[in-house]
Specification:
Layout lengths: L3 E8 L8 H17 L2 E9 L12 H11 L5 E4 L2 H4 L3 H14 L2 E4 L10 H34 L35 H15 L4 H11 L12 H9 L6 E4 L2 E7 L8 H11 L2 H4 L17 E2 L6 E7 L7 E7 L6 E3 H19 L10 H24 L5 H26 L13 H6 L6 H11 E5 L9 H4 L6 E5 L4
Parallel strand pairs: 1-2, 1-3, 3-4, 7-11
Antiparallel strand pairs: 5-6, 8-9, 9-10, 11-12
Length: 490
């Protein structure tokens, strides 16, 4: 008489998500159940999950199968091989307990089946368990060594497809047909998106605004999602891969040059990292998703020198309408209508752009070349210190002390290089045929970039109204409430 059976299938690596391996295992296991006259009660499937001592992923269906066996829902477990069930000696002991206490039987398609209720069967199981564990560790060591060699050669070592670069393409039989291009060949339209996003961030646009554009473009994320989120975009824009640097477990490998072509320049890379990895920038106007007014957290209160914020205020009197206003963050010093203040600032910026145009961007000086040379020399010095530590010529304490000093200096050089790239805030606007028109066009210059341009060209301070005068919105003149001070050209 047949027994109630549970079929367990698993494959360790299924990067494409096709589940072809587990489907084949299931088919063969069902043939065994039919041959034995058993009834398949349930299918337990852990796809793309390892079962060795090195694997950290949980196996939910394996645990569910053990629970069902203990409760008598299934009396037999069929798997393709004993190694499909587990490669961990401790879990083999759990299977022996199932057999001894609950009478559970185990049957395999492509490896010997044995009775765990006998001492001979348990001996064979434990020998196979040790062999499976050793084989898994041999594979792990070999893979790690291969990855280290690939890193030394500057090759991509796998993982999720990096946005901007080619992923795997398979034929109808599941074979990879572009192995030499995976992670190496650039996808032109995705690379162009990265280049554009880097320039937008440097120009003052927020990640949220860029994500909205990318979502509307219809280009999916590397994992196939239609929706782009700032955290995903940020990881793409700040990754060392964009300039051909090797990174492993979050650490940039000094001296290892990748074989894939870069997407952006080193100056752009350091500039965008300085913006996106700086906590101060993340809390100011550059990263906000809800900004609608030019001066929010940009204009300064003339009383307390704190930043102004926008707020909705009702006009006084019958029939009064709501209007946007700027208020001191303390809410006590002053409040002023937003529209006329922004109009004054816009007029100032447009006039300066029209008068000076591309001269505001400035001409890059030759110091950048010297800074790059200095940065390379500092990186070389860190490599030299690492060699001295490895050869025992330097204690770890001395190594860390000297390396930290060099890293501090290197951070300063990179910050200087990044500041030279932020002149792109005005690029495309100040050098346009009609810069004022481009500045005022919301399609060409989003609010985030307008604010960055204002911040680059001037400081705006709001003064308190004088006592005894009519409110400015009744007098119709706000010019004596605004102080605009010019900043030097970028």
């Amino acid at each position: 008489m047949g027994k109630p059976v549970g079929i367990y299938v698993r494959i360790s690596d299924d990067r494409e998500g096709r589940e072809l391996g587990v489907e084949r295992q299931e088919e063969d296991c069902r043939k065994v159940a039919v041959r034995e006259g058993d009834t398949v009660v349930d299918l337990y499937k852990d796809n793309d999950i390892g079962a060795s001592t090195r694997s950290k992923k949980p196996r939910p269906d394996y645990k569910r199968m053990l629970a069902d066996a203990k409760h008598g829902r299934i009396h037999k477990i069929i798997a393709y091989t004993s190694g499909r069930l587990t490669r961990r000696p401790r879990e083999h002991e759990g299977q022996i307990e199932l057999a001894e206490r609950y009478g559970t039987e185990f049957q395999y398609v492509a490896s010997p089946s044995f009775d765990l209720n006998t001492s001979a069967g348990r001996r064979i199981a434990r020998i196979l368990a040790a062999n499976d564990a050793g084989e898994a560790e041999d594979i792990s060591e070999r893979v790690c060594r291969e990855k280290q060699q690939a890193l030394a050669r500057g090759e991509w070592i796998g993982g999720a497809r990096p946005f901007g670069y080619q992923g795997t393409i398979r034929d109808a039989y599941g074979n990879v047909i572009n192995r030499e291009d995976v992670g190496i060949k650039i996808i032109e339209h995705e690379a162009a998106m990265i280049q554009d996003a880097v320039q937008r961030v440097i120009s003052g646009e927020s990640l949220y605004a860029i994500c909205e554009k990318w979502t509307h473009s219809g280009v999916p994320t590397p994992r196939g999602s239609k929706r782009w989120y700032p955290a995903t975009l940020k990881r793409i824009l700040v990754r060392p891969r964009n300039i051909g640097l090797m990174e492993h477990r979050g650490v940039v490998l000094e001296g290892a040059k990748a074989i894939w072509p870069p997407i952006i320049t080193e100056d752009e890379y350091h500039a965008v990292r300085a913006i996106l990895l700086d906590n101060e920038h993340r809390t100011t106007y550059r990263g906000s998703r809800s900004l609608k007014w030019l001066g929010t957290n940009l204009y300064t209160c003339g009383v307390c020198q704190d930043l102004m914020r926008s707020a909705g205020i009702s006009s006084q009197g019958a029939g009064g309408e709501n209007h946007a206003a700027y208020r001191c963050k303390h809410g006590l010093h002053l409040s002023v209508r937003a529209d006329p203040i922004d109009a004054i600032v816009n007029t100032y910026v447009c006039a300066r752009l029209a008068k000076h145009g591309a001269d505001l961007i400035g001409v890059p000086d030759g110091d950048a070349v010297d800074l790059h040379t200095e940065a390379n020399a500092l990186r070389a010095r860190i490599t030299e210190l690492e060699d001295m530590l490895g050869e025992g010529e330097l204690s770890r304490t001395a190594f860390l002390r000297q390396r930290n000093k060099i890293i501090t200096k290197l951070d300063g050089v990179n910050a200087d290089l990044a500041s030279r790239s932020t002149g792109s805030v005005l690029s495309g606007v100040a050098d346009a045929p009609n810069p004022a028109e481009v500045f005022m066009n919301p399609e060409l210059t989003p609010i985030e970039r307008k604010r960055a341009i204002v911040d680059a060209l001037c400081t705006v301070t709001i003064l308190k109204g004088r006592k005894g005068r009519k409110p400015a919105h009744l007098a119709g003149d706000y010019r004596d409430r605004v102080v605009i001070k010019k900043k030097d050209a970028v």
